[in-house]
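Protein in question reproduced for absentees:

***
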Amino acid sequence: MTFAKKALSIGLLSGLGIAAAASAQTTLNGAGASFPAPFYQRAFAGAAGQGIMVNYQSVGSGAGVRQYIKESVDFGASDEPLKASDYAKVKRGVVQFPAVGGTIAIAYNKPGCDLRLTQKQVADIFLGKISTWDQLKCGKGKITVAHRSDGSGTTFAFTNSLSSFSSEWKSRVGEGKSVKWPVGVGGKGNEGVAGVITNTPGSIGYLSRAFVKGPIKAAALQNKAGNFVMPNLASGTAALNSIQLNGDLAGEDPNPAGAKSYPISTLTWILAYEKGNGSKAGALRKTFLYLLGPAQNISDDLGYVPLRGDIVKKSRAAVARIGA
């Protein structure tokens, strides 16, 4: 065999090997919460090393739950646990588990301002009762409020805390994935709200801590114990440790006790199917165990709170229920 023919043969064999590896790769499609999207994207990239490609669409919790119920995805994701009324709509059985924790920052764009807010002030800003920066002793100018325009688990967690902070908020607006905002401009996803705040000096909104960057800063927020705390790993961990999970691995605490707890902290959930996964069942289990294992070690660097202890054990046990 000549050198040219030998090289061609090796090239063909290599190409066939690459094609075979590509064909052996399993592709999973997921959609939902934008709050944990940066974490999921990094975590799922790590799963690619195990021959699994994950396409995750950051469309918001509301859209993610709708796609999950319609079975148009392999899994969904939400910052609000699945409602009891939705369980009956999922014929393939629900496997719901916390995937990571996080804090929701009161995010603002006001150069030269180091903002410290009481719980009442936060509610009053989003009620429109505080509308200028001088009311916060933080310079001059009108406050532009930014909020989500889409159905959002981040909005549910945020408004759930506001209802705990303020009886007026609870009676006038309440909590939910979508609410009738008294004031403000909307952005789609955490990405959209971050864009509004970045491009609008004098604005304030709510975001996953992972999106606090560039001109966006996070306010120190007064907790239930009366202390002003920043949204970070220590304060988020202190808050999430108080959450008790029920049999469906759902749980929340909209205003946790504790001297170090950050008041607006939440878990975020993956929604998988118990059956009907076919040949993808093994890839789903492998991906989610990676998410709950090695990926937790990068969560703090990305602005999230890693899961530890009993929550991880319960989540891993739930993943084991994902069958073909």
Remarks:
- The longest helix spans residues 3-24.
- The first strand starts at residue 26 and ends at 32.
